[in-house]
Amino acid sequence: MYSRQKLYEGKAKIIYATDEPGVLLAYFKDDATAFNAQKRGEIVDKGRINCEISTHLFRLLEAKGIATHWIDSPGERQMRVRAVEITPLEVVVRNMAAGSLCRQTGLALGTPLKPPLVEFYFKNDALGDPLLTRDRLLIMGLATEEQLSQLIRLAKEINVILSGFFQQCGITLVDFKVEFGLDAQQHLLLADEISPDTCRLWNQSEADINRRILDKDRFRQDLGNVEQAYQQVLARILTHISQP
Ligand code: ADP
Ligand code: MG
After folding, report:
1. Are residues 222 and 107 in the same domain?
2. Where is the domain boundary, 52, 82, 112?
């Protein structure tokens, strides 16, 4: 696969072209970044674990009727996906206040958000991925009103499925980020990855506010045991997922 044409190298994955039209190969790396890449490091085995976690979650979502870019995962760290034109929006769903929401609003960490909050950030590293308003997003032409409603509806559906599944795993899905894109037929597909890099996950059997963290916040906040947390998420998913 290394001889394939590299189309893009991002912070967490490399995207390769394949012989099949409309199909790309995503290769998951161990590189970790936080705070718009101001903090950099590596999480041992993260690429393998995140690829596996994403695979199980995309499969779960597909089984529940969500259209995703996932085709199959032919080897360690590798995922075959349908090529899409990524909508440059980070769609964030929050079930509880954490991270930038707490910093920007003063809401206490863990404040329940009912109904869940759906937010849009402009996927633009140079601008620091700013929070968008609905009107800004429309003015910028990042989506039409109709697409925006569709994105909100999809994000909420994905949240119900993922929250319910993680609940079975004894994990609280605090918040998560997803990306969408349009394929050649203009179908909107859930793309990118769903992993402890892109979700906040709290272990329900730990009361301690640091010990309960099973996601990239361990890396962001230098809490240690980052690899172990990612492994724990995968282990619980494997115990609770129904194999096809
Ligand atoms: P970034 O540093 O931009 O977050 P990543 O390393 O996470 O990059 O991933 C590589 C890039 O691949 C991202 O920009 C992501 O939007 C893009 N991508 C994800 N899925 C697809 C897809 N199915 N088709 C095209 N691009 C994709
Ligand atoms: Mg990314």
Report:
1. yes
2. 82
Q: What is the mean pLDDT of residues 166-178?
A: 98
Q: Using the mean position of ligand 2's atoms as its centre, give its distance from the Cα of residue 27 in Å.
A: 12
Question: For residue 110, what are the domain limits?
Answer: 85-226
What pTM did the predictor assign? 0.97
Please report, for the domain that includes residue 28, its CATH number: 3.30.200.20
- The answer to whether the CB of 105 falls within 8 A of the CB of 117 is no
10 lines ligand 1 (CB under 6 A): yes
pLDDT score at 242: 79
Distance (Å, whole) CA 14 – CA 47: 11
Cβ–ligand 1 distance for 81 under 6 Å, the answer: yes
Residue 1 has pLDDT above 60, yes or no: no
The proportion of the chain whose per-residue pLDDT surpasses 90, expressed as a percent, equals 96
Ligand 1 centre from 204 Cα, in Å? 31
CA distance 52 to 228: 15
- The answer to the question of residue 33 being in a domain is yes
Pick the closest to residue 27 from 43, 50, 59, 44 (CA basis): 50
Name the average pLDDT for the chain.
96
Nearest residue CA, atom 11 of ligand 1?
A: 10
Nearest bound ligand to CA 123? 1
pLDDT for residue 244:
58
